[in-house]
Structures are given as C-alpha cells and as structure tokens.
C-alpha cells in the first residue's frame, strides 16, 4: 500500500478532475441545447393555436402544428391527445398520460450524471490531497533538517491543488444540475397543466351543448 501511494503523482488526480470537468461541460451543453432549444415551446401561445384549430374543427392542422415541433414534450402529448380526439374522455386522458410518461426520460436524461460527477470529483480531489500529504510527510522524514520545512510547505501546497481543482469543478456542476432539474420540472408542469386542459376541451367538443365546458379551458389557455 505504501509503495502504491508513493508511486502516485498529483498530476494523476488533477488529470482525472480535468477529464470530469470536460465531461460535465459537454453534458451541460447537450442538456441546455435540448431543454432550452429543442424541447422549448411557448406553451400559452402554442395551446392557443391548438385550441383555435380544435374549436374550428380543423384537427389535421392542429396535428400538423404538433408535428412541426417533434422534440417538444408538450407538442407530442398534444398530438397523442388529438389522435384520440373522437374517443371518450378516459381514452383521451390515458393517451395524454402515456405520452407524458414517454416524455419524461428524454427530459431527465443524463441530468443525474452531473450530480454524480460533482460528488466523485470532490472526493477524488480530497483523495489526491491525502495522498499528497502522505507523500510529503514521508519525504520530510527522510530529509535533512534544513530541507524539511521547504519540502513540507511545497508538498502541502501541491496536495491542496487537487482539492481546489475538485471543488472548482464540483460547484458549477452542481449549479448546472440544479438549473437543469428546475427547467425539466417546469416543462413537465406545463405538460401536466395543458394536458388536463386539452382533455377537458376535447371532451367538451364531443358535447357541443356544453358551452361552459369549452369556454373554461379557452379562458385558461389564454392566460
């Protein structure tokens, strides 16, 4: 064990931290691109258009509008509901629920990797510091009295670099993880909220005399 510790160089730990940092950056950029660009949709404006098509009886145009945003969870859930527009309320609700469940993996994909990277890189940085301190004390023990202080100071400084590097990578990674989780939850909230309104609207469409049932979702979607 002692020989293994002595054979380790602090650059091994710094290199691992750097690799984790690069991986974290790529994950963050990929998730940001998906959540902020590909999956992003102005829900109120989108559902207002969908509602207009439904009330006008033009379901084909509504489905075509959904197809124009294939990466949007809200568009996919809406399309699933529209394909069952002539079914009963329970069938429409089931289609919305299934489409919502299908959308969750794409929204949450690889986000938890960031939390894992932040934890691992912090612990690896601490391990590098401990190994560096052990190596420093061993070097001091074999040094002359004149060299001990200089060797110890240098060894401790080098050892602390790994902890500092690990924390420097972990902090922005955790912040990015939190922001991505928040954004993903916001998308799912929109899907749930507008999905319910869509079920109500399509069900009311099957009962033309229920004007109030149609007007309520219309007023809510316009907010």
What does this structure look like?
By secondary structure, this protein is an all-alpha fold. It has one domain (2-221). The chain has helices at residues 2-7, 10-38, 43-55, 59-67, 73-82, 89-108, 111-141, 145-205, 211-221. Helix 5 (73-82) packs antiparallel against helix 6. The chain starts with a helix and ends with a helix. Mean pLDDT is 85; it is low at 210-214.
What would a concise description of this structure say?
The protein has 223 residues and is mainly α. Helix content is 85%, strand content 0%.
Please name the defining characteristics of this protein.
0% strand; single chain; mainly alpha; 223 residues
Give the overall form. rod-shaped
**Alpha plus pi helix count:** 9
Largest sheet: none
Mean pLDDT: 85
Strand and helix layout:
Blueprint (H helix, E strand, L loop, with lengths): L1 H6 L2 H29 L4 H13 L3 H9 L5 H10 L6 H20 L2 H31 L3 H61 L5 H11 L2
Helix pairs in contact: 2-7, 2-8, 3-4, 3-8, 4-5, 5-6, 5-8, 6-8, 7-8, 8-9
